[in-house]
Amino acid sequence: MAEAETTGRDRYFDLLRVLAIIRVSVFHMFPFAVLELAFPSMGVMFALGGSLMANSLMRQGAGRVLYGRVRRLLPALWVLGAVVVPAMFLVGWEQRPPLWHLVAWIVPFADPPASTFGDQAAEVLWYLVTYLWLVALSPVLLWLYRRARLVTILAPMVALAAMPLVPVAAVQEVGTDVLTFAACWMLGFAHRDGTLRRIPGLLIAILGAACVTGGLAWSWAHPDAGGIKYLPVAYAVYNAGFVLVLLRWRPRMEWLIKRTGLDSWVSLINARAVTIYLWNNVAIALCYPIGDALEVWRFGRFFEVGYVTIALALLVNAVLIFGWVEDLAARRRLRFLPWPSRPVREQAPPAGAGTVYRASAMAGR
After folding, report:
1. If DSSP codes are grouped into helix, strand and coil, which group holds residue 120?
2. Which residue of 95, 118, 183, 330 has the lowest C-beta tally within 10 Å?
3. Tally of CB atoms within 10 A around 289
4. Which residues are CB-contacts of 153 (< 8 A; sequence separation ≥ 6)?
5. pTM of the full predicted structure?
6. 3-state DSSP helix/strand/coil % of the chain, to nearest 5
7. 201-249 pLDDT, tens per residue?
């Protein structure tokens, strides 16, 4: 997420990431299924991550790329853990796991353990777990993708059907998340090497619509599942449909760059995307007891405005207090508020296979 002020950026990627972060935060506050269906944020973020990962692997050695990703992502998690883990012990941790399980708060190879008190903070960490596994697997996935593109993209969806047979619950949970979004991740590869650009836009639109329709039909055929996100194969297909269209589309972004105020907000949110993602659920969880103490119910039918305002204020404070960790992890100049001081220049779009251009990811380059 670095270098918004001094180097070219893919502003379309930046805008997609901002929309994804906002949609996630709104969904955590108002968990209406229509929000998730209208814009599947997680599939989009994994697709962006896959494209940027392929970009880095084309230019650098795998070891250096993996280290860079981990270095940029984990410090923000450690700060969250430094606050949440002691709080869980102080409040009281019922059915506390063995202490060595806390290593997942340092290197999240599995979902970090949490008490009831800390569950809201830990609930969002599955994304980091899945992201890190996909990063670690990317050198192999990219090697396979280059040899059998379509097979490599479709294989995770097929493998999802077998995940319920895995006897270890933790492996099944992590494996399901990884396989659900692996296709989106590798569609990012297809975007990066120009494969998607070589497919006619009309065909991409038809394939995308077919995937979205198929995922929804699968969900409607299984109403007892509780929603499409509880049907991994359907959810994977649904996300892939959106990603196909969004990554194939390449809109011109001059309209955003000309609106310097809006463009600056896009840069700011990108520069603090990890912090916003990690702390938004904490802010939402705390807004209710604080709102009750402040008697926001006095607003009558507009009482929810009070809770939303408190949640937003808490999130802004979290960004101001902890956001500098993202600068430290990226080895940038530490900034209390990373408001861009000069216009952002947009990079040219990829022209075809093998084209590489610089952009930032949610968790770094």
Report:
1. helix
2. 95
3. 10
4. 145, 183, 186, 187, 190, 240
5. 0.89
6. 75, 0, 25
7. 999 999 999 999 999 999 999 988 888 999 999 999 999 999 999 999 9
